[in-house]
Amino acid sequence: MALNLGMVRPGSTILIPFNAFDSNDPAASVVVSDFVLADIGIYKGTSMDERGSTTGVVLLDTDGIDIDGAVGIHGFSIDLSSNATAGFYAAGSHYYVTVGPITIDAGTINFVAATFSIGYPEAIINTTIASVTNQTQFILTDGPAEADVLIGCPLLFHDVASALQLSIGYVTDYIVTTKEVICTDPGGFTFVATDNVSIMMRTNVHAVQATTQAAADLATLLNAIPTTAMRGTDSAALASVATETRLAELDAANLPAVTDATKAKTDNLNFGVTGKVDSNITHVNETEVDGT
Questions:
Q1: Cβ distance 44 to 67 under 8 Å?
Q2: 172-181, 193-202, 224-233, range with the lowest pLDDT
Q3: pLDDT score at 243
């Protein structure tokens, strides 16, 4: 029975062990002979075209036979970050791996060793980039048939030729007729056509996007409000700004000149007895004072 590896992440290395048994005694393990890299075939989807390179395929324990000395246990690994056959390993695609012809117990054997698909299991869509306009605008190889359905969904970009190189953005627009995605700049590596992209389930990023924009608009509005409109607040910082503005207004009204004129008048008042105005004041509000 073939080993079903399920969905594996882009660029990962998968291990494919297999057993060999005596044809007359299924309980007896036997050695495989004539097992070489050329005996391993990797096929994509329903295509009958075998991957054109063995680069990235490695026989375990040097020759893939009797791993660590255990008779009948054989195997190999496949590095999915190998891009020797350009774009062959792609998110959203399914694969099966064959072994043969090899010799087991004097018989010639061919079999399906494993099946797997590539992608992030938590994604709602695993696909690749068909073409790139820039780092915020690209075309999906496969995309949904509903307009704007992807808006707010996080995007995970994974370099087709790397186990670890990735970047993250989110969708701001989706044009269904062309499967074109507009997104925030993910930063990280510069993605190109054939790189993998996984579209994740929408989280609260869509709501936060709108809230963030509103906050930015509010900040702009607050910066535009003059400090004179902030008088009477309890904020010390704002009060200081408002006070400076008010003092400038008083200065503009020539307050020093008014103060000097008032002082000149009061300087002419004479006090013969402490606390009493002298008799040189003859009238108060047009009422005659007798001067005593």
A1: no
A2: 224-233
A3: 67
**Per-residue pLDDT at 185 exceeds 70:** yes
The residues pairing with 131 across neighbouring beta strands, listed in sequence order, are 139
Return the number of other C-beta atoms located less than 10 Å from residue 157's C-beta.
23
Helix axes 236-252, 255-266, angle to 10 degrees: 60
The helix, strand and coil proportions of the chain, stated in percent and rounded to the nearest 5, come to 20, 35, 45
Report whether 275 contacts 269 (CB < 8 A): no
Domain with CATH 2.60.40 in the chain: 3-118
Query: What's 273's DSSP letter?
Result: B
Q: Is the dihedral of CA 229, 232, 236, 240 positive or negative?
A: positive
DSSP-based three-state secondary structure for 213 = helix
Q: How confident is the model at residue 24 (pLDDT cuts 50, 70, 90)?
A: confident
pLDDT digits (tens, 9 = 90+) for 42-70: 999 999 999 999 999 999 999 999 999 99
Say whether domain 3-118 belongs to CATH 2.60.40.
yes
Spatial separation of the C-alpha atoms in residues 247 and 241, rounded to whole Å? 10
The rounded distance, in Å, linking the Cα atoms of 73 and 30 is: 9
Every domain of the chain with CATH number 2.40.10 lies at 124-206
What kind of architecture, by CATH, is found in domain 124-206? Beta Barrel (2.40)
